[in-house]
Amino acid sequence: MLFALVPLALVTVANAQGFVWNVTVAQSGFVFDPPNTEGVATGDIMQFIFSGAPGNHTVSQASFDAPCVQMAGGFDSGYVFVPQASDTPPIWNLTVTNASAPIYFYCKQTAGPVGPHCLAGMVGAINAPDNGTGAFSSFMSAAMALTALPSQTAGALTGVGAMATASPSPLASAAASGSPSSATGTGSGTAAAPSSTTAGATKKTGFQTGVAMLGLLLGAVVVLA
Ligand SMILES: [Cu+2]
Question: What is the span of the domain harbouring residue 32?
């Protein structure tokens, strides 16, 4: 009976996770693609894929009114340096914790042929409306109308309406030397890469233990009933 219940527990765990939405970062030009993801629900995961190489970008939360400024209390991937196209694209999973209001973000990088990426239109949104108040097009226009990138601060993994539990990975070990502005990132980048294998293994073990315990629990409930 216990063995028959384990698959049921697996299904339960899988359903607890939200839908995963992919957003590429600078894969073709200085853009997030799609720039505005609509229909995102609370619990869904925004999976940012840093596939633009070579490149160095961020996913940083902004308010609608200040498109290229790190929002106070907002999320921030930190600077993600991808040296060459053959590298495995770093991935950042951001879980939406409150989908009732639009979420806006931008890239704070200044290095590169286009100047500050945000001013070049490297902005994005989650659930921004197409028209009216808070429209994504208005957010992008306001960013591109700026004549200089405002001074930048570092955000955190947890933002307003969305949060991550880890920095993007795998990160290139030379992340801190990508550009002078790299030093203003979260600072957790260089240490993440060497420990990723161990961390992944630990996480998997924890997951398997959790599934086994859930199966035991369900088995006990059925036996008691
Ligand atoms: Cu960028």
Answer: 18-185
